[in-house]
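Section 5: illustrative case.
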């Protein structure tokens, strides 16, 4: 596939592949899009047209800008060109060196989103290095990847802040312009032949925006095909553009050299002033504001009709005067490439399916390390430790050395184990995937890793803390509460608690992955916890037959039963009255759940653990 990309003619733009690595070499890509139409369903019988017959072409070494007011379809078109439009109805023709979007093109495409989706606790160097480890092929050594990261940092002017944390809402990090350059740097690591940027100057001051666009222009001059959406560029930024696509409510009103845009609009009767920023004039035209309608717009007399009429006239003029000529340019390139296209079809029939750049195990190891580095500074860790330890000590004081004759108190303590470690990990796990949704979408769209490697790395990476806290809790409360002073019984009780933690965490992961909304997921977790608490076998011993199935869905019930099973057996007795001894198995709270079939209980919890996590994994596959 890479050889095919390199062999195509490219509209008189000749770019040599960079020599440092064939797998990272820069292969020219000519992107063409013709009559692109995109529709979304609003209701069962109603459709909305987002893009209506947009066309254009951009060659290696060129910077094409998509200009238009908010809601004109710029981001939608950019997303379609990046092969990331997964919903709605997309029609038209989009080709890359006269071939459709495929895995090889995807690996050579960099896509910079409008929002800088970065891990706040990683430094600039760590962010780029972990990206390099995931996106660069294993044919490069570790040192080569580090050197490549250093080159990108130097090229983007990030040397000064390379050891600074990215920062987030809760603490200050690098500046907005530096974050944008880090986002661009993540895509530059793969040395993309095609670079797409969604409003890279949004939210930046004019000086920073100028610096960012200068960097982007330099990247284009290096032989890359660069397309960017931009909302309101300054005059200096506008003159950096080689080509321009101007959109108005999804329809195209201009495509061609940016330098001749004003001349074109003057030729069709929309006079323009040379003293004004060209981008401002073009945006006014895209909004339907022309010298003929500006008075009506300001006075409010039939303003909407005037704007609509002006926009329709601009669309009609483009279709009549310019579109045919531009389509002829695209068609002429198709004719010149006819024989090469025929050869491509022959070669393409033997093309291998898309392969990942790195192995599953490599992705897993890198994601584990990145997760540990990112969460090493989480402020709530100390709070969580204090919370768990303080609850354990308080509970230990309340149940301090409970006598064996106080059977109700001792059984209540065991049920407290099952309840506390049934809801605590559940609530913590609910936040896991909703908090990383944007990052997951961004990295999966870039083909950075397999979902399975991410899923296991993300869930396993949290286990040390998730299992350390219940270990400390069990050690404190078990011995302070005066439960059976037998090491083997303690170890079994501890393992049961850890087992319950894993099952509860699994359900929380499933809730978070399915809903992807923290508020909804925590609400569902609250209801579930309450149901499990009531049906856990301690508060209600005689559940009505028509709803008795509910307790078998509660992992708290199985945890409670297992703890009873390792703490007592059929021959254990307690002093139920002075000088009178009764069997523990006959105590109502124990009798209602029983002391047998513990192996079956373990198997049922194992099914829950695997089932909940499998559901969470399937739910993540649908995240987009």
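Designed sequence:
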């Amino acid at each position: 596939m890479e050889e095919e990309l390199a062999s195509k003619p490219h509209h008189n733009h000749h770019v040599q592949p960079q020599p440092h690595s064939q797998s990272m070499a820069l292969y020219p890509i000519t992107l063409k899009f013709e009559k692109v139409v995109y529709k979304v369903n609003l209701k069962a019988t109603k459709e909305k047209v987002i893009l209506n017959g947009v066309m254009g072409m951009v060659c290696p070494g060129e910077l094409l800008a998509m200009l238009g007011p908010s809601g004109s379809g710029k981001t939608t078109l950019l997303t379609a060109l990046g092969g990331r439009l997964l919903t709605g109805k997309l029609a038209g023709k989009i080709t890359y060196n006269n071939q459709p979007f495929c895995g090889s093109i995807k690996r050579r495409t960099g896509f910079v989103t409008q929002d800088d989706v970065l891990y706040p606790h990683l430094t600039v160097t760590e962010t780029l290095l972990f990206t390099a480890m995931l996106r660069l092929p294993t044919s490069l050594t570790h040192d080569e990847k580090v050197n490549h990261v250093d080159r990108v940092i130097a090229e983007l002017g990030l040397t000064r802040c390379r050891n600074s944390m990215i920062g987030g809402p809760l603490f200050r990090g690098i500046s907005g312009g530096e974050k944008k350059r880090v986002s661009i740097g993540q895509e530059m690591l793969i040395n993309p032949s095609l670079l797409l940027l969604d409003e890279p100057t949004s939210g930046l001051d004019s000086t920073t925006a100028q610096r960012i666009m200068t960097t982007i222009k330099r990247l284009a001059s290096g032989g890359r095909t660069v397309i960017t959406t931009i909302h309101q560029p300054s005059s200096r930024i506008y003159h950096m553009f080689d080509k321009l696509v101007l959109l108005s409510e999804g329809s195209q009103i201009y495509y061609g050299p940016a330098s001749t845009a004003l001349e074109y609009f003057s030729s069709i009767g929309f006079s323009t002033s040379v003293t004004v920023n060209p981008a401002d004039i073009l945006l006014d035209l895209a909004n339907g504001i022309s010298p003929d309608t500006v008075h009506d717009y300001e006075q409010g007399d039939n303003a909407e009709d005037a704007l609509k009429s002006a926009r329709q006239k601009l669309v009609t003029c483009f279709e009549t005067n310019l579109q045919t000529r531009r389509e002829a340019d695209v068609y002429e390139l198709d004719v010149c490439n006819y024989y090469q296209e025929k050869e491509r079809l022959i070669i393409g029939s033997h093309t291998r399916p898309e392969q990942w750049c790195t192995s599953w195990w490599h992705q897993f190891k890198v994601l584990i390390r990145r997760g540990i580095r990112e969460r090493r500074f989480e402020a709530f860790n100390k709070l969580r430790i204090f919370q768990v330890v303080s609850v354990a000590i308080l509970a230990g004081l309340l149940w301090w050395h409970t006598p064996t004759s106080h059977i109700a108190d001792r059984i209540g303590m065991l049920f407290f184990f099952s309840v506390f470690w049934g809801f605590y990990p559940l609530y913590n796990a609910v936040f896991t995937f909703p908090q990383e949704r944007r990052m997951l979408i961004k990295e999966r769209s870039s083909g950075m890793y397999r979902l399975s490697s991410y899923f296991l790395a993300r869930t396993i990476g949290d286990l040390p803390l998730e299992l350390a806290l219940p270990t400390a809790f069990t050690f404190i409360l078990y011995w302070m509460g005066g439960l059976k002073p037998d090491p083997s019984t303690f170890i079994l009780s501890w393992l049961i608690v850890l087992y319950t933690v894993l099952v509860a965490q699994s359900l929380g992961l499933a809730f978070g992955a399915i809903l992807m909304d923290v508020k909804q997921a925590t609400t569902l977790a609250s209801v579930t916890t309450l149901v499990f608490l009531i049906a856990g076998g301690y508060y209600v011993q005689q559940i009505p037959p028509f709803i008795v199935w509910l307790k078998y869905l509660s992992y708290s019930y199985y945890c409670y039963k297992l703890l009873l099973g390792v703490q007592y057996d059929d021959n254990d007795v307690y002093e139920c009255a002075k000088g009178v001894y009764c069997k523990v198995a006959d105590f109502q709270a124990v009798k209602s759940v029983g002391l047998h079939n513990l192996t079956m209980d373990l198997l049922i919890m194992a099914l829950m653990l695997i089932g909940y996590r499998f559901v969470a994994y399937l739910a993540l596959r649908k995240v987009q």
